[in-house]
Amino acid sequence: MKVWKAISAVCLLVSTLPANAVTYTVGPIDSGPIDVTSSFNPGYTLIDFNDGTSPFTGGAVISGTTTGQYVAPAGDTTPYFSVGPSTSSPASLALSAINQLSFYWGSIDTYNTISFDGLSQSFSGAIFGGTDSDVSRPSRQVTFYFSPAESAALTGISLSSSSNAFELDNLIFGSAAPEPATWAMMIFGFGAAGVAMRRRRKPATRVSYVV
């Protein structure tokens, strides 16, 4: 019974992996950047832009708000990253072999777009509650998840904005590998499945009785 439970768990794990489309979660409208490091492995990479530098090609690290150019994400009093006509657009960052990516998306606009290079997938700010109204632009924590196939194909991300601006802070990404116990269960489950299949293919032994 334990063997079949393990096999069932493995099958369930495989069946629930995302397929053909990057999945995501959207947090509530926030009043400031939140700590999401607990949802990532210790080996994650966090970019908070506080030192004034950025790993992106394009865009710029700025502070505060300049009317008609960029608006600081709600509650954000530290430097942040901006992409738009006033800071150059698009901005790109090479990334690969990750299965999670998250950031605090400030004053989301419908004309903000994030694209995943290598996957031919893009998402506009409209999907995450973006609006072009100056008084109601939300700021939210947005997290994207990549299946193993998507992680292998991903080559980077591109941020663009046809108007000012795409603002974000606290970019974090990494790979949440299964715990050792989970790996053990998966290996045991696949091994048990193989044994069961071999036994099923073995022909039955016929016994003849001489009367």
From TrEMBL:
Residues 1-21 form the signal peptide. InterPro entries: Ice-binding_C (IPR013424). It comes from the Bacteria. The chain crosses the membrane at residues 180-197. Residues 176-200 form the Ice-binding protein C-terminal domain. Keywords: Membrane, Plasmid, Signal, Transmembrane, Transmembrane helix. Pfam families: PEP-CTERM. NCBIfam families: PEP_CTERM, PEPxxWA-CTERM. This is PEP-CTERM sorting domain-containing protein. It comes from Sphingomonas paeninsulae.
